[in-house]
Amino acid sequence: MSTNELTLTPSQSPGLVKSPLSISPSRPLGAVRRPVNTTGWREWLFTVDHKKIGIMYGCVAFTFFIVGGVEALFIRLQLALPDGRILSADKYNQMFTMHATTMIFLFAMPMAAAFANYFLPLQIGARDVAFPRLNALSFWLFVSGGLILNASWFLGGAADGGWFMYAPNSGPVFSPSNGVDFWVLGLQIAGIASLIGSINLIVTVLNMRAPGMTLMKMPVFTWMILVVQFLLVFSLPVITVALVLLMFQRSYGATFFDVSQGADPLLWQHLFWIFGHPEVYVLILPGFGIISEVLPTFSRKPLFGYPFVVFSGASIGLVGFGVWAHHMFASGLGPVSVAVFSMATMAIAIPTGVKIFNWLLTMWGGKIWYTASMKFAIGLVILFTIGGLSGVTHAVAPSDTQQTDTYYIVAHFHYVLFGGMVFGLFSGFYYWWPKVFGKMLNEKLGSWNFWFMVIGMNLTFGPMHILGLQGQPRRMYIWTEARAGEGFFNFGFWNLVSSIGSFVLAVGILFFIINVIKTTRNPERAPLDPWDARTLEWLTTSPPKVHNFDRIPVVHHLDEFFHRKYVEDETTHAMTQIATGEDLMRAEEAAADTGIHMPGPSYWPLLLAIGVAVLGMGIIYGTPIMVVGALVVLFSSFGWVLEPSVPEPIDFDSPSHDGHTKEIAPVG
After folding, report:
1. Of 242, 419, 618, 659, which sits 20 to 30 A from 633 (CA to CA)?
2. Do 132 and 196 contact (CB within 8 A), yes or no?
């Protein structure tokens, strides 16, 4: 074969081409059909492209991550030494309430949405999500909710009742400022955003998979995102009901949680935790999905027990709805209820353990490549296991009753959420950065990023186990030298270690920010398939084209992209490479579809989200503002419905396009 020509036949790579192709590698890949690089602000404000929306989700969510991290540093500064004077009692209550709310609702959930929006259509071989404009609306509603939540800092004080906002503390008697009203309103709007997004992604997965991609050929990341969307669809309405009841009690004099009127404040706890415990898996499962793509890639072998990983993820989602009351063992539920929820809490450890063993067996015997992404993935397995083991102790009711509202709980859920979610997200950053931006994050800085984060996390949250078992309450804003104790179990020593660890952790995050800035300034482009990856999102240029794929791929295998590059030797059963990722992408360009329809930008989702935010603010500040918001919502809705939906197809053979694709008339 000539060194300047590569011939690929269907027998060599199933589903690659319909007939033998002769492809010259001399032409730069993507030079003919690479999309126009649009950077104008209107292209981002009005875009309905799932990739741009994913990037915007990620940027805004990471900004809130920094905000939540700064709030955490203030908390640790307050508790580093006895008789802390950094924050007053009221400001401390606001700080830990907003820290938890920001990290859960404004960072973790939307950052998972960022990954889902960007990669889910690519992984299933689709050109966009099912409802592009709804996707844009979901993003702008999330931004509106986040801004309203944080606006409370400047408009009378933030919410001060904890992220769980237990009644009656969240009522107007004990929280008379508008902070809780902003909290309720912001979460309602952010919840609508999540609900819209979840329905959109469910429809996308169930109806827009590439030909041949059965459910059991979907990547694990797509599976975990699908499970998360069903969790959101069934749990968000419950917290929405609770928020509406609280809103009516605070704004209109209702008595849903007023004990003096015969109400039961435990109603709020049930409603909140029926949402709150599935929410834990909403946060964790995306990280599980990410490392289920990373571990096989950098272990150089398929994921061990793919069906078990998939069904264990679905089982976690199902059983997660039946364990909420273990958050309420100290509330006097009664022995029968406690026994039932204790058993359910033990049961959910089984599918979680299945995943851990599958990940370990994937690495076992593999040729491991210790990239930054792989280090974060391994870190997740270890740290989440520690958090899971401490969580199993909560299935023992007497133990849980003693640990409730102590720092032992804080240690547990940070090992689960930070170790199991944030480390998964950072693994995804390093793995998919070259796909999204076409550049490689610096591996040396990535290692510094990892080690500072893993050391800082263990220094911060490890001592909290000791503090909690010694009885330090989780919402104590100050401690005195007299209460510090002596020896190894000294409050003062471990609080200081924990506070130092939080700043070590912050330095780790700073290394990531430096890495991003350095990479952005670096002109060097990443290889098209830098990791020798396995899934379909790599079967396109980096960054992907506006239309994602030049032709919709036909799927024959799990890990379709890998099986197009490698075939199994019938004698030795060894995998032999027959093509590179670049070869495959050249073949796709050579056989590109014509007449591709893509939706164009629309400003109605942004305007509608603004209207919803103004309408909500009217609940706090008066009917006239509410009327203005309602009019904007009505006007935007009509504009959306009446927007033209007849697109112009992309014709690659037309000289008027000059070989470039571009966004055109909107489609539904």
Report:
1. 242
2. no
Q: What pLDDT score was predicted for residue 569?
A: 80
- Tens digits of per-residue pLDDT, 79-129? 999 888 999 999 999 999 999 999 999 999 999 999 999 999 999 999 999
Tens digit of each residue's pLDDT (9 = 90 or more) over 279-301 = 999 999 999 999 999 999 999 99
535: left (phi over 0), alpha (psi -120 to 50) or beta: beta
Take residue 555 and report the two structure tokens written for it: 């799927």
Tokens of 262: 């015969």
Exposed e or buried b for every residue in 76-102, given b needs 16+ CB within 10 A? bebbbebebebbeeebbbbbbbbbbbb
State both tokens at 512. 């990531």
Cα–Cα distance for residue pair 267/242, rounded to 1 Å: 9
Q: Where are the beta strands (DSSP E) in 353-443?
A: none
Predicted local distance difference test score (pLDDT) of residue 487:
59
Q: Do domains 53-264 and 284-526 have the same CATH topology?
A: yes
Which token pair is 354? 């299945």
Residues in Cβ contact with 407 at an 8 Å cutoff, skipping those fewer than 6 apart: 464, 465, 467, 468, 472, 473, 474
Question: What is the C-alpha to C-alpha distance for residues 244 and 77, in angstroms, rounded to an integer?
Answer: 36
Q: What residues have CB less than 8 Å from 43, skipping those under 6 apart?
A: 52, 601, 663
Classified by CATH at the fold level, domain 53-264 comes out as Cytochrome C Oxidase; Chain A (1.20.210)
The CATH H-level superfamily of 284-526 is Cytochrome c oxidase-like, subunit I domain (1.20.210.10)
Answer whether 107's CB lies under 8 Å from 68's CB: yes
Smallest Cα–Cα separation from 305: which of 362, 267, 346?
Answer: 362
Alpha carbon 397 to its chain centroid, in Å, reads 31
3-state SS track over 288-350 = HHHHHHHHHHHHCCCCCCHHHHHHHHHHHHHHHHHCHHHHHHHHCCCHHHHHHHHHHHHHCHH
543: closest CA among 561, 526, 531, 520?
526
Contact 473, 406 (CB under 8 A): yes
Portion of the chain with pLDDT greater than 70, in percent? 89
- Domain limits, the chain: 53-264, 284-526, 541-593, 604-642
Listed residue (584, 598, 472, 490) closest to 539, CA to CA: 584
| Residue 349, C-beta contacts closer than 8 angstroms, at least 6 positions apart | 388, 391, 392, 395
* Tokens 């006239």 belong to residue: 624
Task: Extract the runs of DSSP E, i.e. beta strands, from 33-118.
Answer: none
The C-alpha atoms of residue 186 and residue 581 are separated, in whole angstroms, by: 44
In one-letter notation, the amino acid at residue 312 is S
CB 24 within 8 A of CB 4: yes
3-class DSSP state of 22: strand
pTM: 0.90
